[in-house]
Amino acid sequence: MTLETLDPDPNLDTDAFDDDVLAALDAEAYVFHVWGGDWCIDCQEQLPAFGAALAAAGVPADRIERYAVSKVDGRKEGPGVEEYDIEFIPTVVVESPDGEEIVRFVESEDVPIATFLADRLAEIETVA
After folding, report:
1. Beta strand 91-95 with 31-36: parallel, antiparallel or unpaired?
2. Hey, how many other C-beta atoms are within 10 angstroms of the C-beta on 68?
3. Where do the domains of the chain lie?
4. Is 15 exposed, middle or buried (CB count within 10 Å of its CB: 0-12, 13-18, 19+)?
5. Alpha-carbon gap, residue 60 to 84, rounded angstroms
6. b/e for 73-92, b at 16 or more Cβ within 10 A?
7. pTM for this one?
8. CATH for 4-127, among 3.30.565.10, 3.60.130.10, 3.40.50.2300, 3.40.30.10?
9. What local confidence, expressed as pLDDT, does residue 118 receive?
């Protein structure tokens, strides 16, 4: 099973992404773990734009881990679901290069995934 909904939306103008968002996503060699399902409406709506933001930020593919999730008897199943306690999708976990969880996006927020993560990552950078 694949997670094609994370493929960048080719119709998005990558110049429209805020430079601060792109800079925050590509800072510190963060690793992005992304859980979703191609069958999931929320994933279909949110992940293509997030994939485009990661591409526009220049995040290399080896720092993006895709985990396709299936739904079996109302439960989410797939790689890392239990280990990372994934209940809702899309879920994006951002880790430092040494594997420490830095920030987590779960299912939905008032802003796009890239903006939500960039805002949290910028707050962490300011404190550090």
Report:
1. antiparallel
2. 21
3. 4-127
4. exposed
5. 22
6. eeebebbebeeeebeebbbb
7. 0.93
8. 3.40.30.10
9. 95
Sign of the dihedral defined by the CA atoms of residues 56, 60, 63, 64, in that order: positive
Q: For residue 57, what are its two tokens? A: 């930020």
* Residue for token pair 């773990």: 33
Distance CA 49, CA 72 (A): 27
Residues in the chain: 128
Residuewise pLDDT in 10s, the chain (128 residues) = 689 999 998 888 877 889 999 999 988 899 999 999 999 999 999 999 999 999 999 999 999 999 999 999 988 999 999 999 999 999 999 999 999 999 999 999 999 999 999 999 988 866 55
